[in-house]
Design goal:
By secondary structure, the chain is of the alpha/beta class. 46% of the residues lie in helices and 16% in strands. Strand 7 (223-229), helix 8 and strand 8 form a beta-alpha-beta unit. Helix 8 crosses helix 12 (339-354).
């Protein structure tokens, strides 16, 4: 009897202890749930897990949720997101302005040698003495053989081909997606004539006559805004400069007496695209006003040897250069025109006009 009584007492004690333990566990779960709910309402949670430690819950002020594990860290700041929304500029796709450098040559463009037309070069060669066609052909073959066997020239040609491969159209387009339509900034004023370089000569086809025309012949003795583009994207850029320029100095049909003019260069370096543009010349004539046909030049060859002197690093962009009566580049810009650039352009043309083009 005493054995049964003792067993019953022990069982009751065990049941009471189990009930007490269950009550404590339930109380802890309820407290944890309340604590978690309170944390979600009032503060931030930082859960740190480790291979050797148990998870710990730390309450801190603010709204930063930091989940740290032994392998990675993930942070989410709602307050920063709210401030980012407040600080975002108005307008879809707004981009913060970058502090752009000057062009690679400090705002100077062009070549150091004064350009000469092919007629002038031919005349100078004729004055040096006439040679027979056989001697000219012999010298030409000799020069080509020397070029083929010259190791230094072959290495330079290889570097040039590698550069062309690495800086193709896709690379230039990828560059635009990173840098935008401005690679460098224009100078706030004209370059002094003693420091300015010359505009190189480019031979192309006149839109008006379909005859060969040389750029140096169009520029000599006049103040010229030279606009260069080869894509529709670049045409939009040069239009932003040409429109205010033509409002101040309009062009008329058959008027060659004006000392201020606009010269447009359509550069097509890709042979396939050049062939398409050749077929579309009648359409180009319809889209370009008639008074601009005489100074519209089409060029169907590569100008890669001039891109570095003119700071034309990207073929998709449009470029403009202000050239004085001595064929010196006094100012240059590219991409979409800003108010400051348009103001500098118009003031510079006015100053050159008052000084007689110099």
């Amino acid at each position: 009897m005493s054995f049964v009584t003792g067993t019953t007492t022990a069982a009751r004690t065990l049941l009471r202890s189990s009930s007490t333990a269950a009550t404590q566990i339930h109380t802890r779960h309820v407290a944890s749930a309340c604590t978690a709910a309170q944390i979600r309402r009032t503060g931030a949670v930082s859960v740190r897990r480790s291979a050797t430690t148990t998870p710990a819950v730390v309450v801190s002020s603010g709204s930063r949720y930091s989940f740290t594990t032994s392998a990675r860290q993930f942070q989410e700041d709602h307050s920063n997101k709210a401030s980012d929304k407040d600080d975002k500029p108005e307008g879809a796709g707004a981009v913060a302005t970058r502090d752009l450098p000057l062009s690679p040559y400090g705002g100077r463009f062009g070549v150091p040698e004064q350009p000469m037309s092919t007629k002038s070069i031919a005349q100078a060669q004729a004055n040096n003495g006439k040679r027979s066609p056989f001697s000219k052909a012999k010298d030409g073959v000799k020069n080509k053989v020397n070029d083929w066997t010259d190791e230094k020239k072959n290495l330079e040609k290889r570097k040039e081909l590698l550069h062309d491969f690495q800086s193709g159209y896709f690379a230039e387009f990828s560059e635009l997606s990173k840098t935008g339509s401005k690679l460098w900034k224009a100078t706030p004023s004209m370059i002094n004539p003693d420091k300015a370089l010359y505009m190189p000569n480019i031979i192309g086809t006149s839109l008006k006559t379909s005859e060969p025309v040389e750029l140096v012949d169009l520029l000599r003795g006049k103040i010229s805004l030279v606009a260069i583009s080869g894509t529709r994207f670049g045409e939009e850029h040069i239009e932003s400069y040409m429109t205010p320029f033509l409002k101040r100095w309009p062009m008329t049909v058959g008027n060659n007496s004006s000392k201020v003019q606009l010269v447009e260069l359509n550069i097509q370096e890709n042979p396939l695209k050049a062939g398409l543009v050749r077929m579309m010349v009648p359409f180009v004539k319809k889209t370009i006003p008639e008074e601009r046909h005489a100074n519209y030049v089409l060029h169907y060859k590569s100008i890669k040897h001039l891109k570095d002197p003119l700071s034309m690093q990207n073929s998709y962009l449009g470029y403009v250069f202000l050239v004085d009566s001595n064929c010196k580049i006094r100012w240059g810009a590219h991409g979409p025109a800003s108010e400051t650039e348009v103001k500098t352009l118009l003031e510079s043309v006015q100053k050159l006009s008052e000084r007689g083009g110099r």
